[in-house]
Amino acid sequence: MKKFLIRSTLAASLSVMALTGCSSTTNSGVLGSERQQLLLVSNEQIMQAATQGYNELIQDAQRKRILDTDPALSARLNRISRNLIQQVGLYRADATKWNWEVHTIKSNEMNAFVLPGGKIMFYTGIVNNLQLTDAEIAAIMGHEMAHAIREHSREKASSQQLTQVGLGVAASVFGLSQGQAQAASIVSDLGINLPNSRTQESEADKIGLVLMAKAGYDPNAAVTLWEKMSKASQGAPPQFLSTHPSSTTRINTLRSLIPSVMPYYKNS
What we know:
Number of helices: 9
Radius of gyration: 20 Å
Number of domains: 1
Oligomer: single chain
Helix content: 55-70%
């Protein structure tokens, strides 16, 4: 039954994909941008949602008086971001003209992200609890900037849309019952969506390495960063149920990639 559900969902999804085609948000021939992307959802839709969510987050943090409470940390993050932003043209020229912003939220939460359009947010906990160096901050920031540059949010929304269309087609064509349709949804999540997310994470690691190396930050810091993260995230779910590669997989992959980006660092 599982094989049947996978075949049904994939067949329907692939038929839609064949009609829509794939493209890329970034220049080809650069590490991390080799893959073609499925982009069914418009950039305008993603930007509208991202802007609304970002404004609500900023307003909430201002009300709670937890926005940009550490001037020294804000200045540090802004300096690192400027160095990294100067490198994004390697992947896409328009990203150099985005309205980039950097903010911090006072919280023990170890989190950071970059929203579509270049809105950078760091929670103070990730810097303070892990005692990050500038290069380790650049590794996080470069990774998150890569998600925005490659429009992974847009791609993920497109993938989810495709999966739902595929499930609907499969249910209709193959006469799946409600229970079978629910099972197919779970199978598609484990077999399609999560692996795609892990692909995006690995892609962001590659692009992040290039950005930090070109900006003058030792790419070896990406390894020390994830060693710290690994110690701080004991009890994480197994890799096949996670949108992120396991720490061991990620660290080994980063180590294997460092020689390819060291020339950028040495020439920076």
